[in-house]
Design goal:
Among the domains are: 193-315, no CATH class; 327-360, no CATH class. The protein has 16 helices and nine strands. The protein has helices at 9-22, 25-30, 40-73, 82-89, 111-120, 172-175, 194-207, 226-237, 241-254, 257-271, 277-283, 291-297, 301-311, 316-326, 330-336, 345-358; strands at 79-81, 102-105, 124-125, 139-145, 151-157, 179-181, 190-192, 213-215, 218-220.
């Protein structure tokens, strides 16, 4: 008898949901020979998901390649971050790296030109994705509807992270000095060096201990999403001694050693990732606490909001930022709580404030 009763429909749907939540369906399907005793319905689900991801990847690659070529032609240096960068650097099959968008970093001075190129390539901005106005934003979402009916999203960044408290982490000027090509994607595709990708992946994981992500319209908060930890695992597998030394050095300079220590420990717990003992010890050896570490290691939304507010320049900008955080546009607040979008907007604002105050 299999570990999961084929007759237990409710349990199978729960398993499928959790696989989707963690973004690992295609990875499981690629390793299906190891899933001895799993029900046929689950295998069918994994096959459908893997096929869907492969089809999406093919179309997304075409859309993204055209955009990267257009940006390169106009002299814009665009750097791929997170999921897409890792898909074409660390994964044997890029379609195995589940993601809903591509994160693209440009210089602040190229922001408006980047927007123009996006528009020329058929993208349009998604205003409902933003809680802040254009001057306060650190990133914005653009969408493209492909001929096959699929929709593709670009998250355009001019700061690597979307938190004012983390402004000093991985500045454009720092990572643009040491880029690596992604020839499997495009001749014009570039990503940060692998140590920068590791730091960013650990920062991203820590951020989502508080910040939500969305899967099939469901709002989830979970830092240890398996696909993110597998990113860390694959990066670590390819690290040389020089990579580890550079990671320790840069984490010490940025004072975020505990953030990377926690992320690597989580990957080791789930995937038996080989991380040198002396590296783990060095990452937590520095007892000084930076604003970035305070922010990322603290799971209180209220504390994070306070640190972000303090990081904003004083005066009217700080006040407008505070008001925008508490009372974002109605379209944003409804998209943030899709299951309650029919509520009066004042109740949604009340829920947002309560989530900041009463969560630990």
């Amino acid at each position: 008898m299999s570990w999961l009763d084929d007759a237990n429909e409710k349990l199978m749907r729960l398993v499928e949901t959790r696989i989707s939540d963690h973004g690992i369906a295609a990875l499981l399907y690629e390793n299906r020979q190891k899933l001895i005793g799993w029900p046929h319905d689950i295998f069918d689900f994994l096959r459908r998901e893997a096929l869907g991801q492969a089809m999406w990847e093919a179309r997304h690659k075409a859309v993204l390649s055209g955009l990267l070529n257009a940006m390169a032609h106009t002299g814009i240096r665009a750097i791929l971050l997170k999921g897409t960068a890792l898909a074409y650097l660390a994964y044997a099959n890029p379609a195995s790296r589940k993601r809903g968008d591509t994160d693209l970093l440009v210089q602040v001075s190229d922001r408006n030109d980047g927007r123009s190129i996006l528009s020329e390539c058929g993208f349009f901005p998604i205003e409902a994705a933003h809680s802040l106005d254009g001057e306060q934003r650190l990133q914005e979402v653009w969408a493209h509807d492909a001929e096959d009916g699929s929709r593709h999203f670009i998250d355009l960044h001019w700061q690597v992270t979307n938190s004012p408290s983390l402004e000093g982490i991985l500045r454009f000027s720092d990572i643009s000095a040491n880029l690596q090509p992604l020839p499997r994607l495009s001749p014009n595709a570039q990503a940060p060096d692998s140590v920068s990708l590791m730091i960013h992946a650990c920062v991203h994981r820590a951020g989502h201990k508080v910040s939500p992500y969305f899967v099939d319209g469901r709002r989830l908060i979970e830092g240890d999403r398996l696909i993110w930890l597998f990113d860390l695992h694959l990066l670590a597998q390819a690290f040389s001694d020089d990579h580890w030394s550079d990671l320790v050095k840069r984490c010490s300079q940025l004072k975020i050693g505990p953030v990377c220590h926690e992320g690597l420990l989580a990957a080791r717990t789930r995937f038996h990732t080989d991380v040198p003992f002396e590296v783990l010890q060095s990452l937590i050896a520095d007892s000084s606490v930076s604003v970035a570490t305070d922010y990322l290691m603290n799971e209180s939304p209220l504390r994070r909001a306070w640190l972000d507010l303090r990081a904003i320049k004083a005066g009217q900008t700080r006040l407008s930022y505070l008001l925008a955080r508490i009372f974002p546009p109605a379209a944003f607040i409804r998209s943030k709580y899709p299951n309650h979008a029919h509520w009066p907007v004042v109740l949604l604002y009340a829920r947002r404030i309560a989530s900041l105050v009463f969560r630990k």
